[in-house]
Amino acid sequence: MFPSLLPTYNRTEVAFVRGEGPYLFAEDGQRYLDFTAGIAVNAFGHANPRLVAALTEQAGKLWHTSNLFRVPGQEALSKRLTEVTFADTCFFTNSGVEACELAWKMARRYQFVSGHPEKFRIICFEGAFHGRTMAAIAAGGNPKYLEGFGPKVEGFDTIPPGDIEAVKAAIGPETAAILIEPIQGEGGVRVLTSEYLKGLRKLCDDNGLLLIFDEVQCGVGRTGKLFAYEWHGITPDIMPIAKAIGGGFPVGACLATAEAAKGMTAGTHGTTYGGNPLAMAVAKEALEMVLEPDFLPHVVKIANYLQQQLGQLLADHPTVFEEVRGQGLLLGLKMKVPNTEFVAVARKEQHLLLVGAGDNVIRLLPPLIIEEAHVREAVEKLSAAAKTFESNAK
Ligand SMILES: *Cc1c(COP(=O)(O)O)cnc(C)c1O
User: Fold this and answer.
1) Which residues are involved in binding pyridoxal 5'-phosphate (predicted)?
2) Is residue 32 over pLDDT 80?
3) If you take atom 5 of ligand 1, which residue's CA is the nearest one?
4) CA of residue 376 to ligand 1 center, whole Å
5) Which of the four pLDDT bands, split at 50, 70 and 90, describes residue 89?
6) Is the CB–ligand 1 distance for residue 181 below 6 Å?
7) How high is the pLDDT of residue 98?
8) One fold for both 16-34+294-393 and 50-291?
């Protein structure tokens, strides 16, 4: 019989019923250390009291009205987001991919109202991930995600990341924008250099293109800055965000400069649920928490500690781990053993939750609120899991 739940996920058996900070509790009461954080979503851990209060307070007042009316929560959050970023404006969505879709629509519309309707193509990169809609699988370019879903949405040109000459060569008379994750998450935690990202900014400026940074995964504090672009001394024109901004409540946003957004007039875009009062109450509280003076310095400090411990782990287990990658708490371990097997052993034998990525990498995406004791616990569990592979090899 076909499963009642569409079987598009290879789910593990375990189901969690409760969470507390960086820990999850399964149906059988067993405790797990969560270094997945809902794939970079639960930045404040589970059942964070401030987020619970923000949600329950709003839940008692009003859930939904639609964007036919003013939504005060959207006004407050957009004001705050534009104060603390490069952006002049933002639009709220329910997910990362919807924020990305708007970014691409906005880029095309910008060129259209600037007198360049012929410019509609977007340059994107191998190893990218932007979600699972028809346009997003075209932008991500991963053949595995495209197979059987053709024809591929037109207008996304995929090239290898890291080579500025390749980008130059790819720009044509129909190019509208360049789309990149400052750190590729899903693709294997690949960090792009400041020099390269600045090179993209310059190419956009010189050729009348918009620069889109997808910060759905790397944004909202994960690298130790509010947004990853801040490390590089440049700003994008458009920036989709999501994941951690809701701390676990589904919400995303597309941020943009006034210039980039100038084509998005009344009637050009819409959403039923996007920016609903529940989402806005949680996201506003989440943003205020990241902006507290001690929060980002804590992320930097604890990330340095974790990276240092991972360096030692590598030295201790040279036949299991190959390399540490990433920035802040968006970290990857390039593996010498199959990443999926390691993730399974860590979960089953050590009760440590990890998530795989492309290029045989495991991602470490802990909540941003972890302390040194959690880092030590995780590294001990990683080391114990590595020993399982070492003894199997003998
Ligand atoms: C997760 C992710 C998306 C898609 O977000 P959804 O909420 O799953 O639609 C887009 N871009 C990046 C970089 C992501 O990591």
Assistant:
1) 129, 214-217, 272
2) yes
3) 96
4) 29
5) very high
6) yes
7) 98
8) no
**Ligand 1 center to residue 185 CA distance, Å?**
9
Annotated binding site: 129, 132, 214-217, 271-272
Closest among 316, 304, 261 to 82, alpha carbons compared: 261
Give the atom of ligand 1 at the shortest distance from the alpha carbon of 242. 7
Q: Where are the domains of the chain?
A: 16-34+294-393, 50-291
Cβ–ligand 1 contact at 214 (below 6 Å)? yes
pLDDT tens-digit profile of 174-220? Answer: 999 999 999 999 999 999 999 999 999 999 999 999 999 999 999 99
Binding-site residue positions for N(2)-acetyl-L-ornithine: 132, 271
Q: Can you tell me the mean pLDDT for 259-278?
A: 98
CATH number of 16-34+294-393: 3.90.1150.10
- Residue 394 pLDDT exceeds 80: no
Euclidean distance between the first and the last CA atom of the chain, given in angstroms as a whole number = 43
For a mutational test of ligand 1's pocket, the pick from 130, 190, 222, i.e. the residue with the most ligand atoms closer than 8 A to its C-beta, is: 130
Cα–Cα distance for residue pair 355/363, rounded to 1 Å: 5
Measured from the CB, is residue 45 less than 6 Å from ligand 1? no
Tell me what pLDDT residue 180 has.
98
- Letter string b/e over residues 179-206, b meaning 16 or more CB atoms within 10 A of that residue's CB: bbbbbbbbbbbbbbeeebbebbbebbee
Closest CA to 124 of 168, 194, 47, 179: 179
Instruction: Give the Å distance between the CA of 140 and the centre of ligand 1.
Output: 11
Take residue 337 and report the two structure tokens written for it. Answer: 């053993």
CATH topology of domain 50-291: Aspartate Aminotransferase; domain 2 (3.40.640)
